[in-house]
Design a protein that fits this description.
membrane; High-affinity iron transporter; mainly alpha; ferrous iron transmembrane transporter activity; transmembrane; transmembrane helix; two-stranded antiparallel sheet
Length: about 290
């Protein structure tokens, strides 16, 4: 169970903290500007976004399990995995680019929404959280579908979400001080590794669905040294999606994704090379 626990905990922690920080920024701005009467509207929008994300996950599960044939399930799972990798890659780079301006962007949109009325405030909060929630749900679903049991992935994901919420609340209260730039850099790099495995897994699904060729053309076979039913093979598969029998196309896809994406992600930008100029950048207190 623990083999799929840790990567899904990472997904829940990283993506959950992004959404929780969005909420904390909105709440902190309303409290600071003495508009607490708008808080119920914001929480209503957040609750609606959470419900939508859960419903989206249930819909994905229903659709995939309801497909008639194995090839149809592999085809759908493969395409969903590739889409999920594309979305999470975009979100990782988006957060890297906009993190230091996120507070100003969100509070500006919230101020405009307040001028338009309660419905606009709820919609703004809903859209801000739903974007994170839907992307997180799809990525979690793609990461978890390779597991034999959903208990480990679900437990890891929920623990990650719980830690993210607790951490965001502690940041809001000023109880802890962490550098969120460093946090998002390390977790983003780990997510890229997880995403590379999901991408490779998606390619294998498409090979089993006979959409892509080369299912029996192996890049390597170390099943004698790493038996697929061993605990360490299961652990490697859960964390890195490593398979003792890996096709050439899988190996190419994993390398073609991981090397350039991780290189570009870790490559220092002009902004990141410059010393931080504002307390927001060190993120000692979320949204304050």
């Amino acid at each position: 169970m623990l083999d799929y626990f840790f990567p899904n905990l990472l997904i829940g922690l990283r993506e959950g903290l992004e959404a929780a920080l969005v909420v904390s920024i909105l709440v902190a701005y309303l409290v600071k500007t003495d508009r607490r009467n708008r808080l119920p509207v914001v929480w209503a929008g957040v609750a609606a976004a959470v419900v939508l994300s859960v419903a989206f996950g249930a819909l994905l599960t229903y659709v995939i399990t309801g497909l008639d044939t194995f090839k149809q399930q592999e085809l759908a799972g493969g395409f969903l995995s590739i889409i999920a990798v594309g979305l999470v890659t975009w979100m990782i780079f988006w957060m890297r680019r906009t993190a230091r301006h996120l507070k100003a962007e969100l509070t500006g949109k919230l101020e405009a929404a307040i001028a338009m009325g309660a419905g606009a405030v709820a919609l703004m909060a809903f859209l801000a959280v739903a974007r994170e929630g839907l992307e997180t749900t799809l990525f979690f679903f793609s990461a978890a579908q390779q597991a034999d049991s959903q208990l480990g992935p679900l437990l890891g994901f929920l623990v990650g979400i719980a830690i993210a919420v607790a951490l965001a609340f502690a940041l809001y209260q000023g109880a802890v001080r962490i550098n969120l730039g460093t946090f998002f850099t390390w977790t983003g790099a780990l997510l890229v590794v997880v995403a590379a495995g999901i991408f490779s897994y998606g390619i294998h699904d498409l090979q089993e669905a006979e959409v892509l060729p080369g299912l029996n053309t192996l890049a390597f076979d170390v099943s004698a040294q790493i038996p697929p039913d061993s605990w360490y093979a299961t652990l490697l598969k859960g964390i890195f999606n490593f398979q003792p029998q890996t096709t050439v196309l899988q190996a190419i896809a994993w390398t073609a994704y991981l090397v350039p994406v991780l290189t570009f992600f870790l490559w220092p930008t002009r902004e990141s090379a410059a010393p931080p100029a504002a307390p927001e950048e060190s993120a000692t207190r979320a949204g304050i």
